């Protein structure tokens, strides 16, 4: 039993030490104070942009309101699709159900 446990431990340590990580190399990145990044990659120049987004959704029951939601939208003024996770900020009872307010940051490349 001790030999088997020792062998498993040694093999686990060996396998974990040989993990490889791959990432795309970015040749140039500059940032500004308005969260716009010039991202020059091998595929061409792209601008990464993010902005704050707050939305409200109405749910039939309070128990069906999630803590966070994935959200995506096309931004006409920036001509790109932006997505991100919005987190629950407040809940209010209304005549039509429960109104949940979600807020977070959306990110996209234009």
Main features:
110 residues, 6 strands, 15% helix, signal
Brief account:
This protein has 110 residues and is mostly beta strands.
User: Residue-averaged pLDDT, rounded?
Assistant: 78
Structural class: mainly beta
| Secondary-structure element order, N to C | HEEEEEE
Q: What amount of the residues lies in strands?
A: over 45%
Number of strands: 6
Shape: flat
Stretches where pLDDT falls below 50 for ≥5 residues?
18-34
Structure in words:
This protein has 110 residues and is mainly β. Residues 18-34 have low confidence and may be disordered. The longest helix is centred in the first third of the chain and has 16 residues, at 2-17. It has 1 helix and 6 strands. Strands 1-2-3-6-5-4 form a 6-stranded antiparallel β-sheet, with no helix packed on it. The protein has one domain (27-109). Strand 4 (68-75) and strand 5 form a beta hairpin. Keywords: Signal. Residues 1-23 form the signal peptide.
């Amino acid at each position: 039993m001790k030999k088997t446990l020792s062998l498993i431990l040694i093999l686990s340590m060996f396998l974990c030490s040989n993990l490889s990580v791959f990432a795309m190399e970015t040749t140039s990145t500059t940032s500004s104070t308005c969260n716009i990044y010039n991202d020059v990659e091998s595929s061409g120049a792209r601008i990464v942009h993010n902005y704050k987004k707050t939305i409200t959704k109405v749910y039939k029951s309070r128990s069906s309101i999630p803590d966070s939601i994935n959200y995506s939208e096309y931004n006409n003024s920036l001509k790109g699709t932006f997505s991100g996770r919005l987190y629950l900020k407040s809940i209010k009872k209304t005549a039509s159900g429960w109104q949940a307010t979600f807020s977070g940051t959306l990110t996209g490349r234009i």
